Amino acid sequence: MSLAKLTIKEAHEKLKKREISAVELTQAALKEIEKKDEKISAFLTLTSELALKQAKKVDEQIALGESISPLAGVPAAVKDNILIEDVKCTAASKILENYVAAYDATVIKKLKSAGAVFVGKTNMDEFAMGSSTENSAFKPTRNPVDTERVPGGSSGGSAAAVKADECVYALGSDTGGSIRQPAGFCGVVGLKPTYGAVSRYGLMAMASSLDQIGPLAKTAEDAAYIFEAISGPDENDATSQSKRPVFKADDVLSEPLNFKKLKIGIPKEYFVEGLEHETEKAVRGAIQKFEDAGAEVKEVSLPSTGYALACYYIIMPAEVSANLARYDGIKYGYSKPERDLFESYLATRHEGFGKEVRRRIMLGTYVLSSGYYDAYYLKAQKVRALIKKDFENAFKEVDVIMTPTSPSPAFKFGEKTDDPLAMYLADIYTVPVNLAGVPAISVPCREGSLPIGLQIIGRHFDEKTILQTALAYERI
Ligand code: GLN
């Protein structure tokens, strides 16, 4: 068995007992990449040298008898929109093809001080816009479970790398489902933290009021370790200035879930037409297991669900159009000089950005323009408040909400590329969570055939309960 198949927990135990070294573990992951990545294409950049250097340092600490954190020496992959100093960072866009990061994102700084080992940067939809990695300017990633199918997106490279044991865990970003949906499609665990729980400093912004960085891992337990390491306030991101107590993975792990005290809500608006039969069966089967174990299951209502996608596809592009204005061919990245500055902007942005990114910049510019702002953007903000209220009301009655992560399992390449609306519809269960800012985790709930994700949604800053619930599910 390849050492890269180990979970964080298992690897940590073996490292501490000196049964394996961090260098061996890292070499195992690099070997899997060498063996599989030509086919899977999970990675855009490999950082083998950096990884081995980091691993060696951890081995030295162990040799000196120093105590190490759970993530020390464990190989990780990082989505290519999160900055690692001196490593290329492209957001899978031609406009940043040769861009090298000048500093570490806060999450990277935190992971480095925890002794993390970075094996490479993973493929994604360009600037995180998409649900299949088909929007990468460089190559599509294949789903390791069935290589004819997409791994989901936009963190498709991260999910595929974890599934294929090319790393032990990975970081992704989630603006409307980009951690949970690929986790669901590839059969791994993906956590989207509460908005504000993890610093966004050093994450290439897509839609700033929705973006969150989070882990993709093999188990809920591993996700808890990673979340502990990356969460907490950061003076470089004002939205992360939460005064809440710091999350401790041990609180989740040492205190098993009391099923008899758990109230699970099933939103009636989510189990409707459009939900594929097998997916519904798997998700209902998972919920049944909780009920059998003593949990109370009741129907709840999230009445504004029907407006969520429309609301997201106004707010998100509005923020996209503002955030992506900085890629002008002057400050950094791809540049196409023309006879004057304006022509240069046009040519650079036309050639540097892919079709989906251009579509969203145009949509966003439109909904923010004078005369349309009130009709679209302002109205969408009001609807967003209603969506948030829906969740607050539901959480007065229940502790967690369970839904499918996506309406169907991984689709085939090309199946939805010609129909953007069909692609957008696949995000129906994940987008409301970002609009409300609450945390959610996707855990695999079908084995044997194409993976299906069970989404567990929690109250603001209650990652503890959803992680405990996910862990309990893995155990039953
Ligand atoms: N698939 C969604 C979109 O295309 C979500 C993307 C994301 O979460 N980054 O916008």
From TrEMBL:
Gene3D superfamilies: Amidase signature (AS) domain (3.90.1300.10). It catalyses: L-glutamyl-tRNA(Gln) + L-glutamine + ATP + H2O = L-glutaminyl-tRNA(Gln) + L-glutamate + ADP + phosphate + H(+). One of its GO terms (molecular function) is glutaminyl-tRNA synthase (glutamine-hydrolyzing) activity. It comes from the Bacteria. Its EC number is 6.3.5.7. SUPFAM superfamilies: Amidase signature (AS) enzymes (SSF75304). Allows the formation of correctly charged Gln-tRNA(Gln) through the transamidation of misacylated Glu-tRNA(Gln) in organisms which lack glutaminyl-tRNA synthetase. The reaction takes place in the presence of glutamine and ATP through an activated gamma-phospho-Glu-tRNA(Gln). Heterotrimer of A, B and C subunits. This is Glutamyl-tRNA(Gln) amidotransferase subunit A. It comes from Candidatus Azambacteria bacterium RIFCSPHIGHO2_02_46_12.
